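Give me the fold.
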Amino acid sequence: MCPASPPAPPSECERRALRQRLRAQRLALPAATRVAAAQALLAQVEQIPEFLTDRRIAGYWATAGELPLAALLGGIHARGQTWYLPVVQPGRLLRFAPWHMGAALAPNRYGIPEPACITADLLAATELDVVLLPLLGFDRRGHRLGFGGGYYDRSLAFLRGRREPARPLLVGIAYALQEVPRLEAQAWDVRLDYVATERELIHCMADG
């Protein structure tokens, strides 16, 4: 008997439908499930040595059902690391501003809170050590499905095409239910080093 062929990657039309389905599934999660997942995520992310030792760690402010990162902040503060949040820039780019619990935030054009900071505080992605990215979908090869805006892909384009971890280390954050069998890599995609869910840490670069 011939082995079964791997599932075909989704077309662009199918990707749009997949975005809608995964977003609806994520939004439908009960509050108690989100809280439990946020706590369980901590154990997965802390398996990454760079997350525990490097100085500049970027995350995101969870919206639209994204997996919250609040449980990570206590350890980051205790270790003397700096936590950064993305700030939308012209040209669909992101820069990153330092933020700590209780510091001022202001909504951006999409209604997502950003640190209230001056331009001099902003860092390019090249200056970060670890970036935690929100995902709509992912596969185990490190391909991600986002909202389609391209902000992270443009901001991290300097990492495109690498075949081993580099700086900053890219860690996708998602619920386990957001995994799909296969995503087709687009020319502009930047591959993840890891995906962390509430259930496991997936090393995407392990097989090259």
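The longest strand covers residues 82-89.
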